[in-house]
Design a protein that fits this description.
Layout: H1 2-64, H2 70-97, H3 100-122, E1 124-130, H4 137-158, E2 162-170, E3 173-180, H5 194-203, E4 207-211, E5 218-225
Parallel strand pairs: 1-2
Antiparallel strand pairs: 2-3, 3-5, 4-5
Helix pairs in contact: 1-2, 1-4, 3-4, 4-5
């Protein structure tokens, strides 16, 4: 009887500890997402805006200095090209930190943009997002990056002609499915990004499964608890 009482108390303490850790992890993820949004805004409104302004000034200078010798004009054009490349790199960085489209158009709009970007590389990509409300920012960005990485893998490795994305709520879970009609044979060991997807899912106490026998088709499933 004493053992049963002690084990019961120990189980209660472990349960409370798990609940506390789950809550603190959710808070930490939301703080991280808020900080990433702040960094994205600072980059967009600060460095990116200054690069755009510098590019415009160089363009205006190019017009004003109409009689500039060819060698000096070449340097001016090279400077404008360098600013353009730096601006594109910064935009890519901003997108990798926290996709601005999620703030502007939500998860459905973000996934639609991924479909538009990858459809020319695959052939046909369809998406269905059945999520009534906005998800927590950290969870929403994770779903977005899961779909982005999965579609990138399809475009690069599967030789597929068609892919389908489904994101839906199922009780307290967000279920993400990305399927394609390619050649299958997905392998985490070969470094096709699946290990990174598994780590993203694990951060939310989620799970990733993939079925992709040789010859295909391939179906990737990710389940993410909304309350993580």
């Amino acid at each position: 009887m004493g053992r049963a009482v002690l084990e019961g108390r120990r189980a209660d303490r472990l349960t409370r500890r798990v609940e506390a850790l789950t809550a603190s992890r959710a808070g930490a993820l939301e703080v991280q997402a808020a900080e990433l949004r702040r960094i994205e805004r600072d980059l967009h409104d600060g460095a990116q805006a200054r690069l755009v302004s510098a590019g415009m000034l160089l363009g205006l200078l190019d017009v004003k200095l109409d009689g500039l010798p060819a060698d000096r004009r070449a340097l001016l054009l090279e400077a404008r090209a360098e600013i353009g490349e730096a601006l594109q790199e910064l935009r890519d960085l901003v997108h990798g930190v926290y996709p601005p489209i999620l703030a502007d158009r939500g998860l459905a709009g973000g996934i639609d943009s991924l479909v538009e970007r990858t459809a020319p590389l695959i052939g046909s990509v369809t998406a269905r997002v059945d999520v009534a409300d906005r998800l927590p920012a950290a969870l929403e960005s994770t779903v977005y990056f899961v779909v982005a990485e999965a579609l990138t893998n399809v475009a690069k490795h599967s030789n597929a002609n068609r892919a389908e994305v489904v994101v839906r709520m199922d009780g307290d879970l967000v279920r993400v499915e990305v399927g394609d009609d390619g050649g299958g044979g997905a392998d985490e060991v070969r470094g096709t990004g699946l290990a990174g997807l598994r780590r993203r899912a694990a951060a939310f106490d989620g799970a990733l499964t993939i079925t992709g026998p040789p010859g295909g088709p391939t179906l990737l499933r990710v389940e993410l608890p909304c309350a993580s």
